[in-house]
Write a structure and sequence with these properties.
heterodimer, A: nine-stranded mixed β-sheet, 27% helix, globular, B: four-stranded antiparallel β-sheet, 23% strand
Chain lengths: 358, 355
């Protein structure tokens, strides 16, 4: 990369044109290329929550792993407050690692059953030795963390099996907070929990964000949860972000036909909120080994035209008066605007039958 | 056209005849710590052409209930009492031979995890045709023809070539369609669907639910849908049994139960769904977590988490009783539930709840 991209000061994380290809063995024929990420652009501001939505196999987890530096991208840049973590070595890298942490989906698999809750939460201090020196300092921090996530100080001596699913997820969150990170990646943090417990954990995450000002990337397939906890949403399909914008914009007036069908297909508790017509997409996510030409969604799209198979769509945006237009050439739509990659974006929610009948 | 547009509601016509009547069903599990009752006094009726939902969180006994009806309980579990009458015959009194005769034409079951429910070493055609060979004595050729016909009915493209494929060659949604095809092969009167879409993405879930609805109407089956997803129940079911710690705590028509819950647990569940709440606003949640089945308290099963709990709840287990027309709940204070405020509207209470 020649020049580092200009960073808006409030952005914690900025990702530009990130791509990642895996090589999948295809028997005697050699190997095939699987483009898991294909030109990802996103940014996360200080103290905000970015939702990442998409079906399984769309590349959400690969993106999360790349941001955690567990995968090396082929092309593109990751800037963490202007710093490229992939250029760091040694001590600098160790310091950087404190700033991004992760909470995993399954609280039953992500905690070591042979360690106590206290050991699990303080394990990061064994790597980051200079943070809390001495047992007294570590214990002070442990008690602080337990209190933050709503566990008792006496819980530190218990092992994970003694906790319920919701309490285990609290331990996972305390571990992620241990090094005082700026960004936490939450990979389906509540999908393994029962509904009555899910609300407790979502409230906790919200309180922590307000108290500590930490930013979240919230990966989930549950649209009602995403709507509740995120400020902005990025919708992924086959390795690309096909739509992004503020949560209200994306949920209330989706531009991309795929987003519209996701909104339409998710079951609604309140009969008054159900769409007038329901879009049921045909088929499933195509194999990422052989993605469709042009627009990747065209094989399942209800608005597809011949041009969709020939040309990859440009980013479209909706202006204040509700008209859909191309982003300004060269400049592109401003950061944070509501954009979607589609030749024929959904003009308004009623076109997709999203307005409730009653 | 790649898409079907249709009316999203699934509620069907008013009550008709009863296909399955479950009365006072008890299921016990033998554990090293002693016998544990995992399903207690469960009663419900499933009607032709309608969907009954068993709703509850993990461990509440909803799957155990279904397995007991289907005769598929693990060896450590056994039916301890009650009847499950399908078409005039008590399923619990049947010997294995009678059971086998009923499995298929009487009742079919769709499991949650399609990959483990299918045999990896036989082709789909063999597995789908098996029902016809066993129950109708069909030849191999006939069975294959029937399998192809079934695959076409559940919407699997190119069934003539796909019939010779193995389960791993299908996608998750297609495997679920195959399981459904297998369950409905002999046009059963009762279809039990155990979390049929939990492992699937939302767009595929919509396809599978649409298929189940279509088959229910075509074959006039009674469907028992087991799920933990309130929104799925709201859209798909006519009646609902809300289960908690092995007990039915509330039952009735979905419209009534969801609009005017008369059990604090149902109310708490409905309020935990993040629908209208604003970003940053606290969700109301149920404090604590469900009791372990070995430590179910005397008295009401929900007392530890209930905002209305008082002395009588700790002594006497409430029985299911009529709380409104066509709605029953097991709560001493059912009349107060709609007026009661669930405690923690204040998000700061979250930390206290767990203590």
């Amino acid at each position: 990369m020649s020049t580092s991209p200009s960073m808006s000061p409030e952005n914690v994380l900025e990702v530009k044109d990130l791509s990642k290809t895996f090589h999948v063995s295809a028997g005697a024929a050699g190997s095939q290329e699987l483009r898991a990420l294909d030109g990802i652009n996103l940014h996360v501001r200080q103290g905000e929550t970015l939702g990442l939505v998409g079906e399984s196999g769309c590349g959400k987890s690969t993106l999360a792993r790349t941001l955690m530096m567990l995968e090396t991208p082929d092309t593109g840049t990751v800037r963490f407050e202007g710093q490229d973590p992939f250029a760091l070595r040694g001590k600098e890298l160790l310091t950087w690692r404190r700033r991004v942490q992760m909470v995993f989906q399954d609280p039953f698999a992500s905690l070591n059953a042979r360690m106590t809750a206290g050991q699990i939460i303080t394990e990061p201090f064994a790597t980051h030795k200079d943070l809390y020196r001495g047992t007294a300092a570590k214990n002070r921090r442990l008690n602080e963390l337990l209190d933050l996530v709503g566990l008792r100080a006496t819980d530190a001596a218990k092992s994970p099996q003694e906790f319920s699913g919701g309490q285990r997820q609290r331990i996972g969150i305390a571990r992620a907070l241990a090094l005082d990170p700026d960004l936490i990646i939450l990979d389906e943090p509540v999908s393994a929990l029962d509904l009555s417990v899910q609300a407790q954990v979502l409230n906790l995450l919200n309180d922590l964000q307000q108290e500590l000002g930490v930013s979240y990337i919230f990966i989930s397939h549950d649209l009602s949860v995403v709507r509740h906890v995120t400020d902005r949403v990025a919708v992924m399909y086959l390795g690309r972000i096909i739509e992004s914008g503020s949560t209200e914009q994306v949920f209330d007036a989706p531009l991309h036909p795929y987003t519209a069908s996701l909104m339409s297909a998710s079951p609604k508790l309140d009969p008054a909120k159900r769409p007038a017509r329901r879009i049921v997409l045909q088929g499933e996510l195509p194999s990422p080994l052989d993605p469709p030409s042009g627009c990747r969604f065209r094989t399942r799209c209800w608005k597809a035209q011949p041009i969709c198979s020939a040309e990859r769509p440009e980013k479209m945006t909706r202006n204040d008066s509700g008209q859909v237009s191309l982003g300004i050439p060269g400049v592109g739509p401003g950061a944070g605007a509501h954009v979607a990659e589609c030749h024929f974006p959904v003009a308004d929610p009623s076109e997709a039958g999203l307005i409730p009948a009653g | 056209m790649m898409t079907e547009m249709l009316e999203p509601t699934a509620q069907s016509d008013p009550p008709t005849d009863t296909v399955l009547e479950v009365t006072g069903l008890d299921v016990d599990i033998r554990t090293p710590q002693g016998t544990v009752r995992v399903v207690s006094q469960v009663s419900f009726a499933a009607r032709r052409g309608q969907t009954l939902a068993l709703l509850g969180e993990s461990g509440c006994g909803k799957s155990m209930t279904a397995k007991a009806i289907a005769g598929l309980l693990d060896p450590v579990a056994s039916v301890a009492g009650g009847t499950a009458v399908l078409d005039g015959q008590d399923l619990n009194q049947m010997n294995p031979k009678q059971r086998r005769a009923v499995a298929g034409p009487g009742l079919g079951i769709v499991f949650q995890d399609a990959l483990t429910a299918l045999n990896p070493v036989y082709t789909i055609g063999t597995q789908l045709g098996e029902a016809f060979r066993i129950h109708r004595g069909a030849s191999k050729k006939q069975a294959k023809a029937e399998a192809i016909d079934l695959m076409r009915r559940v919407g699997i493209p190119e069934p003539e070539t796909r019939v010779n494929s193995y389960p791993h060659q299908f996608s998750g949604g297609m495997r679920q369609r195959i399981l459904i095809a297998m369950a409905v092969a002999l046009s059963p009167q009762l279809l039990i669907a155990d979390e049929p879409t939990t492992a699937l993405d939302v767009t595929v879930q919509a396809q599978i639910m649409l298929l189940l609805r279509k088959l229910r109407t075509e074959q006039q089956m009674a469907v028992v849908l087991i799920t933990h997803d309130l929104a799925v129940v709201a859209e798909e079911a006519d009646e609902v049994c809300v289960m908690y710690a092995g007990n039915v705590v509330e039952q009735g028509s979905v419209d009534k139960v969801f609009s005017h819950p008369t059990h604090p647990y149902t109310k708490g569940l409905l309020e935990s769904v993040p629908t209208d709440a604003q970003r940053g606003e606290g969700l109301s949640s149920i404090p604590g977590s469900p009791p372990e089945l070995t430590k179910i308290p005397a008295g009401c099963v929900y007392q530890d988490r209930c905002p209305l709990a008082s002395a009588i709840c700790r002594q006497e287990r409430p029985l299911l009783r009529d709380t409104a027309d066509g709605q029953r709940a097991a709560c001493h204070f059912a009349e107060k539930v709609s007026a009661a405020k669930t405690d923690n509207d204040d998000a700061n209470n979250v930390k206290e709840e767990i203590r």
